[in-house]
Amino acid sequence: MRIDERVLDRILPTVRKPGRYTGGEYNSVAKDWDTITVKVGLAFPDVYDLGMSNLGLAILYDILNQEKDVLAERLYAPWPDMEAAMRQAGLPLYSLETHRPLCDFDLIGISLPYEQLYTNALNLLDLGGMPVLSQERDEGYPLVMAGGNAALNPEPMADFIDFFVIGEGEQVILEIVEAFREVRDAEREAQLRRMASIPGIYVPRFYAPSYFEDGTLAKIEPLVDEADSHVVKRITPVMPPPVTKFIVPFVDVVFNRASLEIQRGCTRGCRFCQAGMIFRPVRERSMEEIIQTVDAIVRQTGYEEIGLLSLSSTDYTKIGPLVKALSEKYQDRSLSLSLPSSRVESVTVDLVDMLAHGRKTGFTFAPEAATDRMRDVINKSISTQELLEVADMVYSRNWRLIKLYFMIGQPTETDQDVREIGQLARQVLEVGRRHHGRKAQVRVGVSTFVPKPHTPFQWAALDDLDTIRRKQAILKEELRQAKGIIYNWNEPAESLLEASLGRGDRRVGQAILRAWQKGCKFDAWHEHFRPDLWRQAFQEAGLDQAWYANRPRLADEVFPWDHIDAGVQKRWLLMDWYAAQRGETKIDCREHCFNCGILTAFKGLRALTPPNAWECPPIRNPRWKELAEQGKVVGLTPVVRKVMAEAKSQA
After folding, report:
1. pLDDT exceeding 90 applies to what percent of the chain?
2. Is residue 428 domain-shared with residue 370, that is, in the same domain?
3. In the chain, what is the straight-line distance between the N-terminal and C-terminal CA atoms, in Å?
């Protein structure tokens, strides 16, 4: 049943940006509920302005709505003014397409790209008229699933989510729909057992954690036959047809453009980067498919900017010819192309020249560290000289702003490494002033390193709050009189929350519940973040945030996410953690395979990968001798060293 439209009509004129809550946008899909058997609500637990820019949600929306007997509708977290008005009027959370209450759907899919959305996810369920605890929801309620990067450690949200989708969702979402058809009328236990039988699905209630006396995790073991001891992530070997009919919002959103994923995965091996590990292996779209997709997007949406997305867009094999072809084709139609993620060493003069025809909002680079030593530690080995040369190239093409992103608090960092961030920013500004005088600008964004699951740095500790503040003060002093440099930093308590949730075990769910009950919502928004309430919530749950966030891990410690298999072996990650502490680097694994385990996890991957996509090379790269002689193979793990030594002795 639809919500009372008369109540909604009275509310909307009293809130900010009512266009967030009306629906009816161009290209949105509203199907006839009476003719559809499976109804899926796709929920993004943040405000519409952010959720509309989420490509993952748009992909699932497109896939599901192409099925004749399935519908997918969108739900977003209302801003506090709208939520207050809804609760006062007794109006439940509703979908935008047909204004149906959340609890009317068969399946609810919640996107969790980052940990600060956890309390908003609880709030969505409560506002939709559903119990927040999974155990309190029987078959009379929709099944609640969740996915996204933050689901790669599902334990903190285990008490609230019925099942998690581990990995990529394009194929498994349709398997979930078909499984639901089979068990629609069954009891909740049977429904969840059926979901657990699908590869890549994790049902928390079918697993039991146990702990040592010191509080560390001993093990997580399955309780039913359908539950695998290790849940292996799902991947989509061949990238599916991209979205072309993007929904065009009525109000301005964070990224007001169409997004096209040109490549998935990354081979650079940055040790802090969770996405670079969990989205292996690399898969590319063909240049022809990308050009055809851009044509369709422009025709079906009217967008004037296209973001060519990837973890490292300039690493796309044919990025130069692609940008050239699109620039020439649309040179008279005011189409702007953006590469949101550009590697310094992959940017060329020709590429900058071609992008110069679009809107010059600024060129963005993420060196992450300012010294060569620190960049070796994090395995992002670009030299300062390379960065300055690229900055000169960009400024000389009439760009006046360069954005640089750094992290403080990374393993082995010293105060001098922090000071060098300010000094490098000054050097880049000087390059800009040679071309634009005082009109040149550098925007420096400095975040705090947070150790993430499934990365080599998962054994590292988060800096304590005092240390973070001290390092931020060093940078403020370094840049205090640097006119032309805009310096932004994050609140240290936000990093503490992110780390204590991201590294949490199932017990942290109690702290999440208490924080939400105390009023914590929109934790990723500075004006709504309440660290005092979070501190109280952890204390009342008998937990210590610092124990989860600031404690380095022992080599043999069991992690709460060890039963979740992202394809990269924990043993390999540990060896890379040791290599980082020695300052050893690894070259791009397109040039040399370091046997991370991804091919072992997905043995049929090579046969399914199209010719245009990158494949992981065999364990013994036939070029390893040549590369070693040229000094291009450095930082080899002990396993690879052993393989090379054996091959040499046999020769």
Report:
1. 77
2. yes
3. 75
